[in-house]
Amino acid sequence: MKFSTRITLVLALIIAPIIRQELHAQSSSTRLSPNQLVADLYKQHDRKRGPFSPGHSALVYKYFEKGLADMIRKDAVTSARKHEVGVIEGDPLYDAQDMEIKNFAIAKASFEQGKARVPVSFENLGEKKSIVFLLTNSRSGWRIDDIDYGQGRTLRSEFKNQR
Length: 163
Fold this sequence. Notes:
Layout: H1 3-30, H2 34-46, H3 60-63, H4 66-82, E1 101-106, E2 110-112, E3 115-124, E4 127-138, E5 141-150, E6 153-154, H5 155-161
Antiparallel strand pairs: 1-3, 2-3, 3-4, 4-5, 5-6
């Protein structure tokens, strides 16, 4: 082996782990915490740029776990094709069809066994509401695995009840 080839190989072996570590640090610093993910979802949703807005449905994978995201997308496509209301009848983030939102707040996430719970509260048309986002951490970061509306009703259960 030539001397220059050996030096290049040694430098590559030294530099590669440093570059890999730097890339990992950059990617993890851009990952959103559970609270940030839920806040960003509402922000985009309220600007009509969220995953439930026409033309932005591909964003569902940015916020939701793949299995749930697939159900949401399939429901949107099927209901649009049939010109019918799908499983998601109203706004899943406010659990309502008509909205006049006040006193919106996202509480601090709680963590247990690699999962997170993010409570959200607001007042809609004079009624106080609370929902909880259940998140799971994956290779691509935190994703919403379900939304708990209370009284045993969740977003996933809405899909299961429609089968």
